[in-house]
Design brief:
heterodimer, A: alpha/beta, four-stranded antiparallel sheet, B: mainly alpha, ABC transporter involved in vitamin B12 uptake, BtuC, 12 helices
Chain lengths: ~250, ~325
């Protein structure tokens, strides 16, 4: 479980998150939605322990993320960042293998190799394994970075706008995969995703957290909280949630 | 699908480099060797050792520095090492006079200078990185400004020297590979081997740091600790080389650029020794050509600096053209 208590994060003198308290239970997909500058990415970084809290506390599986060693933290929480950019000339396989760094510290075991192969296969990257990262399309790169985060084998997977560079087919592929991983069973992951793709959130998220101006506007099961009224208020534009082909989607009102 | 061993560095690329360096060393020692063989050989071995130690130290230090600063144009020289060295030389002569400076045993002088350079750079690193290694650019810029400040101070102090003392300082300010004290060289050699060993131990962490600060922290690297350890090694290696022969700013840029190009890898377990071997080979080949083939007494470092400066401009222009 993730427990956030009275979390405030400042950038300089400006508060980005203000006195925020939240709990995340195991399993499922939680979508963090809200307008630009709402503090969604900051919240993910704070949960991952990569941004110090000005006040308050973040606990992952009962441990204060500010106090645990980086390598232990990386076994609890994996974070895909918005601006993942690598200057070194790595292949896809090299990149994914870095997801195992906290376990092998540069000397991979048979288990590490097994997980790397599985990550490549999970995200359809086997054919691209020996390609250089900088020769890939935006969508392929994104999948490679998600695979790296997945290879960390953490109970918590935090993804900051993983759908940004993807076409509709790959959005669907990726969300289906993530949805499958978040269901109960062996190797179940608890996934928190910052997303601007509201139709994808309406279709795949189990839980919605709507944020604005560094605060939580509303939180709860998607069916209850993903409504036209909530979204219109949140994004300050007319939006509606309608049923299409047995699933929800978001359309302009 | 059979996976190749992605994290096992391919060290085979180092073999031709090591062979090249060995060949150059043999050529350097044996070329035109006349009687008294033993005497000439002793002189040549001393010079060879100082060239190898300096080239290797600068090459390795530059690769580490560029990874930590995430910038392949920067060299440790840019943060004002050379300026500090020349300042120390000038201050010594100004305060104690040229004769006292000349009277200090070379070993003591080397250790004191190296210690002073390491201490100042570590103070700079820890002071500036207190708010996290994300501020590494600020550290580099501060180094550049400090370098300018020290150069100004040095040039002011040099106006106060008399001509003979000024000549002593002038001589110390240009890298020279002749007549390095053998005791000093032994200490420098042992320190270099220890520092390279530490750098290889740190190599997997440097690989991870090469992903960039944010991603590296995300996969569990204690980035701040690695930056501090890496910069300490850089300080030691550069101090070692500067205190041994004087400032060489751009040699590292040439060695590191060639190492990246030749090895085509991101693995520091290969890049660090490769840059060390290439750095040593450049100095050795240069000195050989100058001294033996062209019969010139001109300072090798001037030419290395000139070529390195050209490479710097080339890399800079190519980058801005992209």
């Amino acid at each position: 479980m993730i427990r956030i208590a009275n979390l405030t994060v400042m950038r300089g003198t400006k508060p980005v998150l203000t006195d925020l308290s939240l709990r995340f239970g195991h399993g499922g997909i939680t979508a963090l939605i809200g307008p630009n500058g709402a503090g969604k990415s900051t919240l993910l970084h704070a949960i991952a322990g990569l941004l110090p809290a000005t006040a308050g506390q973040v606990e992952v599986e009962g441990r204060d993320v500010a106090r645990i060693r980086p390598e232990e933290r990386a076994r609890l929480v994996a974070l895909l960042m918005q601006s993942d950019r690598v200057t070194a000339r790595l292949t896809v396989e090299d990149l994914v293998s870095f997801g195992r760094w906290t376990y092998h510290k540069g000397r991979p075991t048979a288990r590490d190799r097994e997980v790397i192969a599985e990550a490549l296969s999970q995200f359809d990257l086997e054919g691209l394994a020996s390609r250089q990262i900088d020769s890939l399309s935006g969508g392929q790169r994104q999948r490679a970075f998600v695979a790296m985060a997945w290879a960390q084998e953490t109970p918590w997977l935090l993804l900051d706008e993983p759908l940004a560079a993807l076409d509709p087919r790959h959005v669907r592929d990726l969300m289906e995969r993530l949805h499958g991983m978040s269901r109960p069973g062996e190797g179940q992951r608890s996934i928190i995703i910052v997303m601007h793709d509201l139709p994808a959130a309406a279709r795949y998220a189990d839980r919605i957290i709507a944020m604005k101006d560094g605060q939580i506007v509303t939180t709860g099961p998607r069916q209850l909280k993903m409504t036209g009224a909530v979204l219109s208020d949140l994004f300050e534009t007319g939006l509606d949630v309608v049923q299409v082909g047995g699933g929800d989607t978001v359309v302009p009102a | 699908m059979p996976l190749r061993d992605v994290h096992m560095p391919d060290r085979r690329r180092l073999i031709p480099l090591a062979l090249m360096l060995t060949g150059l060393a043999a050529l350097f020692l044996a070329w035109n060797l006349k009687a008294p063989v033993e005497f000439i050989l002793t002189l040549r071995v001393g010079k060879l050792a100082s060239l190898v130690v300096v080239g290797a130290a600068i090459g390795a230090a530059t690769v580490i520095f560029q990874t930590l600063t995430e910038n392949r144009l920067l060299t440790p020289g840019i943060v004002g090492f050379d300026a500090l060295f020349v300042f120390i030389q000038t201050a010594l002569v100004l305060l104690f006079g040229g004769s006292v400076q000349a009277a200090i045993p070379p070993l003591l002088q080397f250790i004191a200078e190296a210690a002073c350079l390491v201490a100042v750079s570590l103070a700079l690193f820890t002071l500036l990185l207190r708010r996290g290694a994300g501020d590494i650019l600020r550290m580099v810029l501060t180094g550049v400004i400090l370098g300018i400040f020290l150069r100004g101070l040095t040039s002011f102090a040099q106006r106060l020297l008399d001509p003979s003392e000024f000549a002593i300082v002038q001589q110390a300010s240009i890298a020279s590979f002749t007549a390095v004290n053998s005791q000093v060289l032994t200490i420098a050699g042992v320190t270099l081997i220890l520092a390279l060993g530490a750098a290889l131990w740190l190599a997997p962490s440097l690989d991870a740091a090469g992903l960039g600060r944010q991603t590296a922290r995300g996969i569990g690297l204690d980035h701040d600790k690695v930056v501090l350890a890496g910069l300490s090694l850089v300080a030691l290696l550069v101090a070692l080389s500067t205190a041994l022969v004087g400032p060489v700013t751009f040699l590292g840029l040439i060695a590191a650029s060639l190492a990246y190009r030749f090895c085509g890898t991101w693995r520091h377990a290969v890049l660090i020794p490769a840059a060390a071997l290439i750095g040593a080979a450049i100095l050795l080949a240069g000195q050989f050509m100058f001294e033996r083939l062209l019969g010139l007494q001109s300072s090798l470092s001037v030419v290395v600096e000139f070529l390195g400066g050209l490479l710097f401009l080339f890399l800079l222009l190519r980058r801005s053209a992209r």
